[in-house]
């Protein structure tokens, strides 16, 4: 059995054919394929506007700017997320307020969120993260945002085809931001997308991502007078997506239903195969939620009611040993993501200790992501399960 990676991209002849067309046409910058991808993504997520950008981090940065977030403001971010969530806030000059998570979902703890909103009037926005393909408690978060008059920008980097009560992730707040990194269900290599139902936000982001130009290159190409440069009415950035990436995106979203069906099927097989392993807390899908399974992330369990640093650190040794055994047997795993408040920069900047957000710390030290990709064979799946059982016998 060859090494089983944590994920694989799902490309076929369509991508190889389509990506050559920008080369043949000569239009390789942001152009017609990017526009087509934007339109298809807006339709898929059932929102009015979609703007493709260079990655999800730049989408978050632009979204925060479009909401007016800047120096003197604070934005709530769950600590258990990729560092990009917090970085995007700091790009604007605003400060990050870290919130702990619910260990059952890995998403933002709405009870702590309410306490933060009630005690800090400098908070201007909430950035719920729809982690690993499961929506955060967005309906409750939206009510809190209305009550405390703060904005919502969803970090839905992992949230493609994640739904809550029939509504796609990224559409509960003013803005939703997505990633097309190779570990995401659909990929353009790098690349991201910002979606919104607010035309003013869309127009602002469209301009900011293109150096602040009042017209895009595609608009100039399609209109008379395109030989003259447009006015630049904002200080912008070069956060554009290339047409190569747009071509990949068009192919990927055309087969999104197939990709997601296969991913969910493998996740359901994991649920069945691992249901009797007591030391693993499996991903949950609460009523009304549809999980996108960007990753299949378990928690190496301990008593969630009595968390202490000592207990977490002791279990972490076992979790790491488990992952090392699997690696030795050719099965790739990853920790889910990191607790950002434990990373040196943020711990020092905000004077934070590991225990300040104890559930995020536990998720950092005890999460384990298993291989998941659409073309995973039955033999590969069974090999992962067999080696996982063997490894658990060695550490528990």
Query: What is the residue-averaged pLDDT?
Result: 95
CA radius of gyration:
21 Å
Shape: globular
**Total DSSP E strands:** 15
Percent of residues in helices: 40-55%
The CATH topology of the largest domain is given as Aspartate Aminotransferase, domain 2
Secondary structural class: alpha/beta
Q: CATH class of the largest domain, please?
A: Alpha Beta
Distance between the termini: 26 Å
Q: List segments where confidence is low: pLDDT < 50 over at least 5 consecutive residues.
A: none
* Strand arrangement across the biggest beta sheet: 1-11-10-7-6-2-3
Reported for the largest beta sheet, the result is: 7 strands, mixed
CATH architecture of the largest domain: 3-Layer(aba) Sandwich
Identify the notable features of this structure and list them briefly:
15 strands; 2 domains; 42% helix; 396 residues; single chain; 3-stranded antiparallel beta sheet; alpha/beta; 7-stranded mixed beta sheet; Aspartate Aminotransferase, domain 2; Aspartate Aminotransferase, domain 1
């Amino acid at each position: 059995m060859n090494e089983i990676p944590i994920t694989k991209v799902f490309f076929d002849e369509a991508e190889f054919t389509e990506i050559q067309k920008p080369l043949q046409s000569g239009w390789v910058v942001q152009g017609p394929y990017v526009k087509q991808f934007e339109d298809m993504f807006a339709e898929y997520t059932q929102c009015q506007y979609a703007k493709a950008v260079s990655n999800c981090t730049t989408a978050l940065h632009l979204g925060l700017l479009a909401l007016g977030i800047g120096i003197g403001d604070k934005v709530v971010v769950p600590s258990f997320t990729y560092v990009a969530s917090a970085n995007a806030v700091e790009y604007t000059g605003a400060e990050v307020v870290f919130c702990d998570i619910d260990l059952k979902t890995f998403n933002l703890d709405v009870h702590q969120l309410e306490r933060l909103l009630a005690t800090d009037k400098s908070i201007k926005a909430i950035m719920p993260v729809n982690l690993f393909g499961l929506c955060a408690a967005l309906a409750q978060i939206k009510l809190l945002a209305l009550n405390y008059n703060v904005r919502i920008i969803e970090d839905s980097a992992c949230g493609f085809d994640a739904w809550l009560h029939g509504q796609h992730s990224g559409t509960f707040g003013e803005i939703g931001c997505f990633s097309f990194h190779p570990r995401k269900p659909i990929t353009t290599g790098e690349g991201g997308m910002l979606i919104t139902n607010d035309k003013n936000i869309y127009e602002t982001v469209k301009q900011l991502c293109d150096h602040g130009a009042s017209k895009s290159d595609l608009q100039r190409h399609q209109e008379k007078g395109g030989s003259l440069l447009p006015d630049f009415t904002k200080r912008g950035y070069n956060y554009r997506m290339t047409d190569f990436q747009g071509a990949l995106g068009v192919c990927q979203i055309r087969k999104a239903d197939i990709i997601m069906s296969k991913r969910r099927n493998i996740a359901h097989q994991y649920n069945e195969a691992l249901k009797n392993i007591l030391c693993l807390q499996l991903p949950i899908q609460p009523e009304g939620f549809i999980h996108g399974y960007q990753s299949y992330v378990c928690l190496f369990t301990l008593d969630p009611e009595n968390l202490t640093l000592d207990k977490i650190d002791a279990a972490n040794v076992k979790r790491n040993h488990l992952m090392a055994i699997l690696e030795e047997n050719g099965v790739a795993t990853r920790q889910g993501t990191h607790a950002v408040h434990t990373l040196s920069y943020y711990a020092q900047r905000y004077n934070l200790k590991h225990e300040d957000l104890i559930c995020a710390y536990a998720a950092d030290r005890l999460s384990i992501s298993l291989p998941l990709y659409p073309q995973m064979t039955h033999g590969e799946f069974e090999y992962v399960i067999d080696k996982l059982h063997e490894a658990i016998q060695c550490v528990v």
